[in-house]
Amino acid sequence: MTAQDLKNSILQLAVEGKLLKGGSLPLATAGKPSSATPSAGTPRNAPSDQKTGAELLQQIKAEKEKLIAEGKIKKDTTKAGASGRALAEITEDEIPFDIPESWCWCRLGEIGDWGAGATPQRGNPDYYQNGTIPWIKTGELNNGIVSEACEFITEKALNECSLRYNRVGDVLIAMYGATIGKLAIAGIELTTNQACCACTCHNGVYNKYLFYFLMSQKSVFEKKAEGGAQPNISREKIVKTLIPLPPLAEQKAIVAKIEELLPYIQKYDVAHTKLQEFNKKFPVDMQKSILQQAIMGKLVPQLKEDGNAKDLLEKIKAQKARLIAEGKIKKDKPLAEITEDEKPFDIPESWCWVKFGDLCERITGKTPERANDIYWNKGKYNWVSISDMTDYGFVKETKESISEEASVEYWNKRISQKNSLLMSFKLTVGRTSILDIDAYHNEAIITIKPFVDEEYAIRNYFFYSLPLLTKMGDFKDAIKGRTLNKDSIANLLIPLPPLAEQKRIVEKIEELLPLCKKLVK
């Protein structure tokens, strides 16, 4: 459960009358003040806390009629229901859940005076220049108390542009676009744009109870939104929305309990976020640790019967010399001896440090001329780019293919065979994949062909070790933007185990990595 889920659950319990211990407060507890009320959340001239929700609603209606008669507020002409009454009677079908007996259902339009704002004409400087009246947009609503504004308007704009002047304590709600349901309580007298609706609560309605009720309804309002690029909920939809009305004392107690719990929800959010980050990072770190242990000779024990990697290296050198003599590969310029300072970590005595170029042939790829359709139309052969490769994966298909002409002119038909090892060395450095198909590839990828490879042992060892080894030395610099070439690749340092140990290392890796993937799930 996320912190938002927990908060939503608490708000739902609150509006159903289930948050307080023992359910709804007995009316005998009325009159006890709430200590959780900020200055912007104090109800004006509160009536007796002893009244039930129904009695409170009757009092609100009577006071509202009086204010209308005195011309202090306008009569709500919002139409609802077939009868055309200002606000339709509530039917049983509308009621979403049961509430305590001392509560009652009513509509938002009955418990406060609602009004939207406006945007004075931008081209008229008389409306903005030297303005002193705060003018709030929905992006400034902060789900708390808003006491500052980014823009100000003039008295002239207030008088001429149908703007509502909101009082301290009014509840604000966003009606348009991505901000639908975002809230604030006015901490200063202010105006708003037309995307924001404000409510001045009638006596007997605690504005912070309304605030938290609206917060509990955010997803409901989002579902009610209509429109294309910028859906909206409109003032009419808001005032028709049902709200459960508790006695005033219970409104205060509910708010106090919510605000008592909110700091714990915030702490839970921090802890939950850290746990999620850990759960996401741990499998990756675990996999990296396994591979790190593998290339350092710490993943499996060294066995005397495995022999020494130096014997394997002599065998590799002999095979390389044979291939050169037979004209199957070209002779490279000798690689410099490895110095002690170059070695990044200690390895077992039966291992040895070797340069990559002494262990395998590296075949770079090419990209046929894009402008020449003859190379790309009627594609016959798979052509691999880095996007076709996955970390420690297999290339089973390619997004693009090349023609017979490209195969002949660019590669002389020397295609990389199925089961060949590929590694990227530009842009994404050190990604390894094994071909599950015959394919050519671009110049950001090399095909790796070990000079000696019994049962793909060295290929598989490279498959798992190269992604880590390429984060060292020159390859580490490449990740920061440096371009690598065949020479720098040839000088990559490889910790070489005996062949039998390579096989056991790969077996252990393939035993452990699936467990890391399960941790991700």
Automatic annotation (TrEMBL):
The keyword Protease does not apply. Keywords: DNA-binding, Endonuclease, Hydrolase, Nuclease, Restriction system. Residues 32-51 have a biased composition (Polar residues). InterPro entries: Restrct_endonuc_typeI_TRD, Restrct_endonuc_typeI_TRD_sf, Type-I_RE_S_subunit. Pfam families: Methylase_S. The keyword RNA-binding does not apply. GO terms for biological process: DNA restriction-modification system. SUPFAM superfamilies: DNA methylase specificity domain. Residues 100-261, 348-512 form the Type I restriction modification DNA specificity domain. One of its GO terms (molecular function) is DNA binding. Residues 26-53 are annotated as: Disordered. Belongs to the type-I restriction system S methylase family. This is Restriction endonuclease subunit S. It comes from Treponema peruense.
